[in-house]
Amino acid sequence: VLDRVRTFDADAWIVIAFGQKLSETLLADKFAINLHASLLPRWRGAAPINHAILAGDTETGNSVITLAQKMDAGLVLGQSTRPIEPEQTKGDLHDLLASDGPELVERVLAEHEAGTLHPLVQDDSLVTLARKLSKDDGVIDWSHPACEIANRINGLSPWPCVTVPFRGQPLKLLRAVESSEPPDSGQQGTIIDPEIGLVATGGGILRIIDVQPPSKKPMGWASFHNGHSIRAGESLIAT
Fold this sequence. Notes:
Layout: H1 2-6, E1 13-16, H2 24-27, E2 32-36, E3 44-45, H3 48-54, E4 59-66, E5 76-83, H4 90-114, E6 129-130, H5 146-155, E7 162-166, E8 169-178, E9 191-193, E10 198-200, E11 205-212, E12 219-220, H6 221-228
Helix pairs in contact: 3-5
């Protein structure tokens, strides 16, 4: 297979979202580049978009790098940037970065053809790792600040998703933001304003924007409240 692939007379090989290492034997003497959804060396690994939101980063982007035998450690050939807005989910940001990717790749290819590329070595002291995520990550500690909880909800939406118990059923939280409402003395993890989805946390107030009940489509909090007559004081904590 390696010999067959190497016979393709291509000016460049472009790898996007491919989860396996390509060998030196395959890549020898080829101009092979990878489009990666982070501002390397920050967030090397399998889930860079998720981890950028989880960490509360305010900016991310795409990087085009050369392929290396160490994960996402190649030379940086070009980057594009985007701000991360407070209510953006991983799904939102994925689509925006995907729309930015082709222009960045084309720019790098054009510079390669013109001989004007300026490869940059990544600073190993700035490396952070974006490990794979699982459903076990979708758990909230309501003693944490509202901003951290919102980042977890948004960073794990639409998968693996944060799930909380509500009236004995699992409820997926799909989008949230830290509220500007003044702190409340309500018990952490309880609903303090059912009409707009405010929940008490260990620091500040969380506003839940979108949810998904079992066997239902995603919906805004207002629709969820209207269908369930939610009351102040109801808990989103497992008992």
